[in-house]
Specification:
mainly alpha
Length: 149
């Protein structure tokens, strides 16, 4: 893989890890706030409450970010993990669409309230970042070349 592509792929791993750290922290902070909505069932995982989903996914994001930042982990595996996580997020959003749930994805917790931003705008920004990570990951994986650490 050319040096420029490898450097950009490495930078994107770091950017992805930073986004996942921020998103995971926002989810965990949101999960501990006494918001009535968090007591209701999640629209996709109906056996779990919104709070439980935020806690589970927030921890997963922090663990994934740690894996992406860990220097000893192969870059190919980092991209596989990132694509795996992105595909899970896409499937969650797809199921919400199929179930005709109109509320924005709670993927950033209550950040819209704290930032005084329209939740749909924040949801769209998260979708754009998710697409960027997924497409970038697939491009790197499909190139079939190894990125050295």
């Amino acid at each position: 893989m050319s040096g420029m592509i490898a450097n950009n792929a490495k930078r994107l791993v770091i950017v992805s890890a930073c986004f996942l750290l921020l998103s995971g922290i926002l989810k965990l902070i949101s999960a501990v706030h006494p918001v009535p909505l968090l007591r209701f069932s999640d629209p996709v995982f109906s056996i779990l409450t919104n709070r439980q989903v935020l806690l589970i996914v927030g921890i997963m994001e922090l663990l994934l970010a740690a894996g992406l930042l860990w220097r000893g982990l192969n870059y190919g595996l980092k991209w596989v993990l990132l694509c795996w996580f992105a595909s899970g997020c896409f499937l969650y959003r797809l199921w919400k669409k199929i179930a005709e749930v109109s509320t924005p994805c709670p993927c950033l917790g209550n950040a819209a309230d704290w930032l005084h931003v329209n939740p749909h705008v924040l949801d769209n920004a998260a979708q754009i970042l998710l697409c960027l990570f997924a497409v970038s990951g697939l491009v790197v994986l499909c190139s079939g070349r190894e990125i050295s650490a």
